[in-house]
Write the structure tokens for this entry.
Amino acid sequence: MMLFRSSGLVVLLLSLSACALGSEHIDVAYKPSKQAEILASAALAPVQIAVSTDHLSPNDRVGTKINGYGMEGGSIQTTKPISDIVKSAFETELLARGFPEKAGGKTVTADVTKFYNKFHAGFVGEAVATVEMNVKVTGPNNSVLYEKAVTGAKTRGGLMAMTSGEARKALEGALSDAVSQVVSDPNFINTLSSVVVNKEGINS
């Protein structure tokens, strides 16, 4: 009986280790941290959104699975490009506030430098996700009107299994935190809403 139980435990551990070896893809969705309100001044302030991942590191994964022994396994990747995920997040927030997305106004550019979840093994595991980006707003003449560097973070503790699903939840929390730091900044909203006067006349 003891031999049978020991054999079963070995098979279970080998199965868990095998699960950590293959790569997996996750669908990271944006979840707003709070409900936005329509701004009266936003309707006349068109914006465009651009996202760059040229400085993203690492750029081949958003995490690495680990087994029960803390050994690294297969990579965790997103089903959609990170640039699309971040762009969709800003679109959600700005459209919710009434800013129309079209040419002729200001441009919001986000340079994403980190989008990663790291597992920490222990008696219980942790998923620690970080999203870092540099955000700027430029006018129609490419003048820089606003700049801000943000770091979004989310830690999920007490994990019995460090799965790709836990990485997804942590990354969604970190993304929400990072974007919230920008859109909740009054200077950011005021910059988008204000009128810019250039050599060719008045532009929003």
The two ends are 78 Å apart (CA to CA).
